[in-house]
Amino acid sequence: MHPSLPFLGRLSLRDYIAVVLSFTALALESVLHIIVLFLPKPVINWFYRRSRALFHRASGQQKDRSEEKKASERILDARDFGELCSIYGYIHEEHVVLTKDGYLLGLHRLPSRKGERRRNPGASTGKPVVYLHHGLLMNSEVWDMTSGSETIGASSFLVGLTYANISSSRGNKYSKKSIHHGPNSIKFWDFSIDDFAWHDIPDSIEHILELTRAQKLSYIGFSQGTAQAFAALSIHPRLNEKVNVFIALAPAMSPPGLAAPIVDGLMKASPTLLFLFFGRKSILSSATMWQSIIYPPIFARMIDSSLIWLFGWHSTNITMNQKIAAYAHLYSFASVKSVVHWFQIMRNAAFQMYDDDVLSPVVRTSVSSYRPARFPTRNIVTPIVLFYGDSDSLVHIETMLAQLPDHTVAKALHTYEHLDILWGKDVHKDVIPEVVSALEYYCSKTDHDDAETDNVKMDTPVSE
């Protein structure tokens, strides 16, 4: 037993030490951030070159000139979604979704096959519609960053079958604008998974269907992108009529916790400690600076070490070239509040709405006087297909299936972890064909059901 201190009740002495060390590390990082901001660019470039030389000397690695390495470097150098698309020969469109609460969401559209240019941008293609949504701390670029010579970006792959719409959550690289608040205000970042579910997902789907003149679309989400859909479909019954299938990659609903026991215990004991560490705006906002000045292989090793420590993911299914290419695009802005929301979910082992009662007494009676509303996910009518890694520490499939409707289909991917489902070296064999098969089945089933409905309407006599 560790002695407990009265401040923040449930924290032990070890937890307090962790808090102090965390504050010290964050303070040091902030000081370094400020110093780097004032350094001349030639000085930064000198440190970059020296770190590169030291890395190659210490690792003893030979210069890699393979096709995969060249593809990795092209992805690494791409500045945005448009440049990533040009690597694969695709021409994209950009659209903006205005949510009902005033956020402007960036939407990327791939409407045509490789090398084709449409004469009427924004018009319907007549093909089935797919909507892809990224995970936490990500943006739409994660769907177009596969460097393997046998594979291509997931969104590009789907264009032959359908056409893809890739949306971005509020606050990230492509959606950092609101008609009410600027991104430097606390009010701009005052959002959680609730807001994604109430506004971002349904408003984006409505925009896409209006743009394409389609009646339904297929939803593909990754990680938090699946949680947003679980939540949105559960609280918007009419939304289920607009989605013919929901494909959840590395699904997230109520994760069991983190692999790092101190961080896991600390955040579950008091999720709002994150507000003390990171404030009430965006989380890890300096990450973009560090990934721009640190030599990419070193940055990739740092990310790998963090993933091992926090989640127990060793990412052996992802090649180093893929990591170097993808990790440089991995981070995008997210609100601290949305991360607090996740730790509330983990603490209560329930997929619930954000708990605003953060100042409630620490000592509770056996019968709680307040419980945040849970997302009624068993009410989802849309067909659900789950693809999860059997080595993913954030997925406890039995717990998840207990919270989902009986028509849910789940498929395990052997030895896969979380990020493997996006960037694993064998996704072109293990993941993409399964996703395409599910899309073909449910799209054709929808067309058949719609045709039967039309026939019934035509054959049914009008009552007088």
TrEMBL record:
Protein species of origin: Agrocybe chaxingu
Q: Name one GO molecular function term.
A: hydrolase activity
Q: Which domain of life is it from?
A: Eukaryota
What are the residue boundaries of the Partial AB-hydrolase lipase domain, all occurrences included?
83-144
Q: Name one GO cellular component term.
A: membrane
Q: Which GO terms describe its biological process?
A: lipid catabolic process
> Which cellular compartments is it found in?
Membrane
Q: What is its main location?
A: membrane
Q: Which UniProt keywords apply?
A: Hydrolase, Lipid degradation, Lipid metabolism, Membrane, Transmembrane, Transmembrane helix
How this chain sits in the membrane, per its record, is: Single-pass membrane protein
One Pfam family it belongs to: Abhydro_lipase
Family annotation (InterPro entries): AB_hydrolase_fold, AB_hydrolase_lipase
Query: What is the official name of this protein in its record?
Result: Partial AB-hydrolase lipase domain-containing protein
KW Kinase (keyword) present = no
* Membrane-traversing stretches: 16-39
Its organism's taxonomic lineage begins at: Eukaryota, Fungi, Dikarya, Basidiomycota, Agaricomycotina
